[in-house]
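ok here's Amino-acid permease BAT1-like protein:
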Amino acid sequence: MVSGGGDRMELPSHQPPNGGVSQDSGHARLHELGYKQELKRDLSLLSNFAFSFSIISVLTGVTTLYNTGLRYGGPVSFVYGWFITGVFTIFVGLSMGEICSSYPTSGGLYYWSAKLAGPKWAPFASWLTGWFNIVGQWAVTTSVDFSLAQLINVIVLLSSRGGNGGGGTSINKYGTIGIHAGILFLHALINSLPISYLSLFGQVAAAWNVAGVFLLMILIPCVATERASAKFVFTHFNTDNGEGVSNKFHIFVLGLLLSQYTITGYDASAHMTEETKSADTNGPKGIISSIVISIIVGWGYILGITFAVTDIPYLLDENNEAGGYAIAEIFYLAFKSRYGSGVGGIVCLGVVAVAIFFCGMSSVTSNSRMAYAFSRDGAMPLSPFWHKVNKHEVPVNAVWLSAFISFCMALTSLGSLVAFNAMVSIATIGLYIAYALPIFFRVTMARKSFVPGPFNLGRYGVPIGWISVLWVATISVLFSLPVAYPITIETLNYTPIAVGGLLIVTVLAWILSARHWFKGPITNIEA
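and the structure:
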């Protein structure tokens, strides 16, 4: 097992000092790492998987960014881009799973970096990874719940007098932020419940996502009176994006964002390990299974919906019934063309809305566990307060902190959607950088000293790790490319500015202050 700095110390057969009574392997491993069992360890593998699967939520990601995929490349971009992105994401997940097996703590990524970077660099590596991870998670929650508020706006629009074209009711930006606040409040309330209730909600969320995908991928193309041909779905490449981007490779790359944004957030399985039984094996399984199953059901959802696409320019037109919200327009037109009413399409949007709600709920769960662990190690202002758990062994203060910060992040939308989108870009690139940092330390500084846990990749660990790191480096560059020409304040891709700004702030905070007092993960039990 592992003591400070990455040296591993073997203990006899994970037996507790209580007369030889069998103890959970995750509990024993946490003790070996120097931490008390403060959270209730009650989650099964299914529950652990359910949290990550619900955060990935293909219904959320694909629905939210389907417009982006249609505009940049169309069917080819997301039908094939989904698999390209999926394969490389599996590599990232495998590398994370191997490390998670050795260090199954709620701290997850930042704890891994501290142990893998070696004693000299451990505090800084932990600090950098931790802040990219937690800010990225907050950005995910912000974007997910804001996208639900926007979808509710579209549902209201379609439900009133025939939608946008018929003078339907549209909620303004202040109403949207109010809905966003209400959603976050509900998520904080739910996450204040005991973990047994959250486990049940998580399993329901996973089932809803799977059932919702299969329902919609079959129902929508069957109901639609006009369907796309297989040739269109598998070979059509849309270059008419209206944004001045003409290079086909550039267009395809921008279309990949739909896939990579969707398959994000599976680090939740790592953050839930202190509440998961046999976490040194079930944590890694939760990470990898959530990615693989999401890739399979997500591709089915993309195919099913795309077979109902016949007119890309109209779906993206802001003057259509759904105000340019492509999937909402697809659902609405499918039912309206067959039955003369789009009510069935609105009900289908309700299915997606529930999935997005569950996604945000699980995201707040993951956020709060990361905040709990990070504050346990003294990295956050007012750390003792955020680290407290209630009588149900739930880090309730960290829950409400995560909801509040996500609300504050969304307030940028009142000033400018450009500023909001820049901030939300951290949800993809910032979070993936946090994923890549411990993997990078694993294949460099800890290449020879790393001792894997029960789940390991053997001799393939290092090459898979390098593929993962290079993939993250690649998408960090590609997703920073211009998204429109000519480049103006309104069309500039602010991703590199947002991510670079986070890097500068984090490093400056380290140089000016944190290096004097933050020493990395701190054990809280006597040796």
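+1. The two ends are 14 Å apart (CA to CA).
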